[in-house]
Design a protein that fits this description.
7 helices; five-stranded antiparallel sheet; Tetrahydropterin Synthase, Chain A; alpha+beta; 3 domains; single chain
């Protein structure tokens, strides 16, 4: 029985397949006569002998190694299985799918800006996509020393340089620090190109990079929100009026009771009046006082007292006491 032990055929397949595994190496075993190679959907099988690629097989299915695989290997096509011998090669199984990875800044990235001498602290998050595109480089740089390679390994390398790239592309060309989302596409495109250069020496290419959102500190976000609300209302003495409205809504107006209610009513009338004037130029605000009646023409109204003797006048043209003309 010992003489025939090594003749048992084996199955060459990805035994430890995981969705987050980029490649897995079948190694340190002899392939016997009658052995089978199984390639599943989304996998490529690469035969490696003495560190050199012998053949790449991409079509899924089950193959006989001695009749369907060996004849196509570059330097092993003349190999003959002996009675008690096998063929020792490594088979690298590569996941051919495009991987999608979520990313997020671990710490705020300080973006230089004139408004804040210490820099604007910004967080960001999104996704990036990558896939294997160069098997020769992958084997030379990674598979030669590793038996497997995970998506997490690529993510660690990407995030190690991501903060610097965010700072570079946000600061470039004077991007608006308070409206970064409007420039998210341009920022992401620049970062994708730089990241591709970072990982191409591992046989990997970055196929996509996306910024889902930029996040400001709470105080900065509150300022941006308030500024936007002011612009929506228009220039209605906007800061004072809206700030007073915010204070009343939050209960920060002192006095309360009827006084606060009256102030609120007057505030509402003033804002409504200003809006009406913007929509209908020339129309008076409801809070504006009515014009006073015109005074009678000068000289027609008679004095109530005589300017000469002080006698009370009842509307006569001459003073009844001294005869002074009053009209």
């Amino acid at each position: 029985m010992v003489l025939f032990r090594n003749q048992f055929a084996n199955v060459v397949e990805w035994e430890e397949f995981r969705d987050d595994m980029i490649f897995w190496k079948w190694s340190n075993r002899e392939i016997k006569k009658g052995s089978k190679l199984i390639i599943r959907s989304g996998q490529d099988a690469i035969f490696v002998h003495n560190g050199k690629i012998e053949g790449i097989f991409e079509d899924e299915g089950e193959y006989s190694i001695d009749s369907q695989i060996i004849p196509f290997l570059s330097t092993l096509k003349g190999f003959k299985f002996g009675f008690n011998s096998g063929m020792r090669v490594e088979v690298l199984f590569v996941n051919t799918k495009e991987f999608t990875v979520k990313w997020g800044t671990q710490n705020p990235v300080l973006i230089p800006t004139p408004q804040l001498p210490g820099g604007m602290p910004i967080r960001a998050n999104g996704t990036f996509n990558f896939k294997v595109n160069d098997y020769v480089t992958l084997i030379d740089q990674i598979a030669g020393i590793k038996d497997s390679y995970l998506v997490e390994d690529v993510k660690i390398r990407i995030t190690s340089v991501l903060d610097q790239l965010l700072m570079k592309w946000i600061s470039r060309e004077g991007k608006d620090m308070f409206n970064l989302q409007a420039n998210a596409y341009d920022i992401a495109s620049g970062i994708r190109e730089d990241l591709d250069m970072q990982v191409m020496d591992n046989g990997i290419t970055i196929t996509g990079f996306h910024v889902m959102s930029f996040n400001y500190p709470q105080e900065i976000q509150a300022m941006i929100t308030k500024t936007a609300s002011h612009e929506m209302i228009g220039n209605l003495q906007k800061y004072q009026q809206v700030s007073m409205t915010d204070a009343m809504a939050s209960g920060n107006v002192k006095g309360g009771g009827a006084a606060a209610d009256m102030a609120g009513m007057m505030m509402g009338m003033n804002i409504a009046g200003e809006m009406m004037k913007q929509m209908n130029p020339g129309q008076k605000s409801p809070s504006e006082p009515a014009a006073a009646p015109a005074a009678p023409a000068e000289g027609k109204q008679k004095p109530k007292f005589c300017p000469n003797c002080g006698e009370k006048n009842e509307g006569a043209n001459f003073c009844p006491n001294c005869g002074q003309k009053l009209g």
